[in-house]
Amino acid sequence: MSIAILVQVQEEVRRLAIAGSAVAPGDFRLKKLVGPLEQAGAKAPVFARVAQAAQAVVESNDKTASAALLDLATLVHAILYTQGETGVAGEMSAIESAELAVQSTQTSARVLKPLMDALSTTGSGRTELVREAIDRGAFADLRLVNPALHALDDPYPEMGELMAERVLPMYGKAVVPALRRGLNIKGRGGNLHRLRLLHAMDAEGTKETVKRVLDEGSKEMRVVAIECLSTSGSDLVFLLEQTKAKAQDVRTAALKALAGANMATPEIVGALTKAVDGADLTLCVAFLHACAIPAVKDHVLKRANEQLATTLSLKVAKEHGEAIARLTALAHCLRERTDAGAEAFLLACLEATPAFVKIKSTPSGIDFLESLSRLLSHGTAKTRERLLQARAKLPDEMLREVFDAAMRTLPSTTFYDEYRSVLRAGMKKGPDRVRAEMLCDVILVGCDRRMPVYATATDKKSAVAMDPRWVDDAIECDRIELVLALAQRGQSSTYAYLTAKLAAPKGHDEFSILQCMTEIGHPGATDAVMAMLQKRAKSATTYWGYWYRPLIIALPKSAAPRLEELLKSLPEKLVDDLLESILELKNKEE
Amino acid sequence: MGAIAIINESWVESAAPNADAAKNGRALVVKGKFAALHVDEGETILFGQCAGSGKEPYAVSCDFARADQPTYRCSCPSRQFPCKHCVGLLFAYALKKAAFKVAAVPAELAAKRDKLAERTEKKKEEAAKPKTVNKDALAKKIKAQLEGLDLLETLTLDLTRIGIGNMNAKSAREIEEKAKQLGNAYLPGAQAALHRYTKLFDADESGGAGGKSGTGEKSAVGEAIYSEALDHLSRLHALVKQGRTYLTKRLDDAELKPETETSIAAWLGHAWQLSELKTAGLVQNDVELMQLAFNTHDDVARQEYVDTGVWMNLQSGRVQITQTFRPYKAVKFIKSDDSFFQVAQVKELCVYPGDVNPRVRWDAMAPRAAEKGDYQRVRELARADFAGVVKDVRNNLKSPLADRQPIYALRFARIGQVGEQFVVEDAKGDRLTMTDRGMTDEPASCHLLHLVSPKLLENQVLIARFRHDLDKRVLQIKPLAIVTDASVVRLTL
């Protein structure tokens, strides 16, 4: 059957249907096809039927045109449906298989469908659903590969990060072709993840792409491409070129990559020293301290010493601001360095404290000293020691770091003996109170008694051991925040203080006091928490189980039955919030 | 061991109407809301009490007297079925069997069980009896339907006169407003068919299907839907004609039986009752089915979510479908269907009138683990001659009211590529090309062929959905699953 004529009829019918059947009566283009159709109809009767139907459309009027047109469309479609081409000619090759390590497709639709929707739509609550699915291993199903790739471009950046960091690496090299297909070198967002993943999964195969990105890519893509370059061979040429780029972010990335080089070539040293000597010094502050190239390290130190001398010798007040800014940047480039040269530079700066105090520019000499105190405090043992020795002569802005250095380096008893007077002096108004506040802040950070919901295991480890006598001073000075931070088990004075404070809490103190009571095993902790829950049940319409969890799980296991009993009298919503925490308490090991 | 032996956590999860009910039911157990947990001596019923928001606890029971069709009873007012209390009771048993004490079934519950047994018996008897129909009422209904078809015809012809290119979201809404009368005329199916046309223009707020802007340019989106829109209009036209013939014939027929040879009754919106299907003899006994694919899609035209299971009838070899419709308004109360990885043993399988992939339904089903022989059976039943299948598909598509995207099981020699095109080839060298285009009920699947093991691409069975592309004039397939001798590798859901 020659379908060419039928295809022509279909096109005309489609045209008329788009325009509306009102224009169908007498349509000359359709009319022209009636003759050939009738001729074909002599051989195949079906064409004669089409000819009749087409004729009916042509001869129709306003009232009959729609029905005639639909009759013709139905007939033509019915015939064309039997003529659809199948197959394809040509040599058939095997599908290039990137066989996925994950071959399971046994995830049920009830799990899969919401995940696919979460990855392809927008709206709240999706990240939590996806994160939970990742934890459960639900992404080990090849049907989620495409949605995961698609989600790299999710408008919510966290979703893209989840895919890039936790999901797609699981599929391995199999996703490389898809990542490559989806990469837009002029793009941003998901394309940054794509390039990083491509480099991580197929560094060799991604070399050309990286070079193309450096030549033609967007600013953001070039920054990522620089991360993918090594610091040798042809890559080095690209890196050196990028240190001259217009975009600051690109220059920063290139300089950072060079600073991380293992091998020092004259070109690398040249590029970095040029940056140190010029305006790009500020770009290098974040990473130059970690540069291991001796020539660069020496150069930074040399420039720092020169800048110190220049700054102190300046006579024109207007020039001080810029000089101080540059000196601060150079000093920061020396942080964490323990070599004698760097140490000597910092100590020389400390010696010059009185001179810096006099510089009133923006930034001022005091601003520099504040930074310097941090560098000394986190420097070598000698810099810390000299900082503590100089305490009496230092401006207040440097004292925070002095207290911090003292807390971290001195034995806890010595720290208490030498610094308790600062706390006690703070009971009076004036500068002494400011210093006392500063000391309190330092101790609080040292104890790292943050809200347990935020605290991590690392935080706990970094806590500094404190002399227990501090608590009594804190109670005497009525510094509740310090008491809460320093409280220990078995201190009867602390128990009494907390009980008294809980009776008349201020602001958000109630929760903090309860938290402290549960943590130090206060004998009244369980009763206090239960009373708080009963109180909240009466007053609040929204409950925050999130906040109650640390309180409940810190209680003794024996509190669980009492809490379960209490649940019966609490509102349903609050019970839902508390349930998991009580289960956790029941299951905890003591 | 009693019928309740099948209860475990995953069974309860699947018995719950949705994920929330499962979560809430489980929470009731953890909260210790259940009291007086009991099981009868024969292990056929669980019963207990569950504290609720009211003063009195709810009386909850899960009755396995009909093991393949448990009866859930609860005195709570929930319209969800089974409610969270019943789900909770099942979880309680799955998690803490020891907490259930053996006890005699309370008199009230025993009476209900007896009543259920009576009802079941009576149902069987009723089913055996010829059903009496209120012919006057039915005739009145058919006349209303005929009037509804007149309206549908008017609307269809009006739409054709207006022209597809002149349609826009506003005119689509106006037509939908008028189409509400079709629902009143007992023609919900016809109404949905009309909505399928109007919904094509829903997304286009810029004016015209062609997205006519101020410059008169036509959007690519508009172009893409023209052919589909015309096909919809042809279908509506055919529906009016065939529907009218069918209804007129039915009106003249003294017995007034619904048509069972074609799907016209369903097209008009007839909701088949299982008893009707049984009376019409559309029942197969002792059938086993294996699910080959599954999809859940949002049918905007019907305002429902549709869960569709694609099954191979291991007796007849036909690819049949199950469908659960969950209207938006009642989505919380209707259990969503899920993919099924076992073999369903069905005593009485009701088969709806239809063409290639008829809808099937059952009252009760018993699952059993799929065995190697089952996969072998699928292989035997799959069609190995692509030319024959293509002929069948084309013949079927000729009918304007035929299923436009039928599903077949195809035994293939290999799957490969010709250029960028995925191709499946049978033992005789006949080929079909694969695409995702135009088949949006399921997620895209062609790309997965790059990711599966090469072993799956030779001498296996492909479950494929066919579609004729009117614009390109090609008949192509979308891969839904590959069945090996040991598993069904699902490529969609």
List keywords for this structure.
heterodimer, A: 590 residues, mainly alpha, 34 helices, extended, B: 493 residues, alpha+beta, six-stranded antiparallel β-sheet, 12 helices, 23% strand, globular
Structure characterization notes:
The complex is a heterodimer of chains A (590) and B (493). Chain A has helices at residues 4-19, 28-43, 45-58, 65-81, 109-120, 126-136, 145-150, 157-171, 176-182, 190-201, 207-216, 219-227, 233-242, 248-259, 266-277, 281-284, 294-313, 320-332, 340-351, 353-357, 365-377, 381-389, 399-409, 412-425, 431-447, 457-461, 469-476, 480-486, 492-503, 509-519, 525-539, 545-553, 559-567, 572-587, and one strand at 93-94. Chain A starts with a helix and ends with a helix. Residues 450-461 of chain A have low confidence and may be disordered. With 590 residues, chain A is mainly alpha-helical. Chain A is built from 34 helices and 1 strand. The longest helix of chain A is centred in the middle third of the chain and has 20 residues, at 294-313. By secondary structure, chain B is α+β, with helices and mostly antiparallel strands. In chain B, the strands form 4 sheets. In chain B, strands 6, 7, 8, 9, 10 and 11 form a 6-stranded antiparallel beta sheet that branches. Chain B has a 5-stranded mixed beta sheet with strand order 4-3-2-1-5, with helices on one face. A 4-stranded antiparallel beta sheet of chain B has the order 12-16-17-18. The longest helix of chain B has 33 residues, at 220-252. Chain B starts with 8 loop residues before the first helix and ends with a strand. The model of chain B is unreliable at 204-218 (pLDDT under 50). At the A-B interface, α1, α4, β1, α5 and α7 of A face α2, α5, α8, β6 and α12 of B. β1 (93-94) of chain A pairs antiparallel with β13 of chain B.
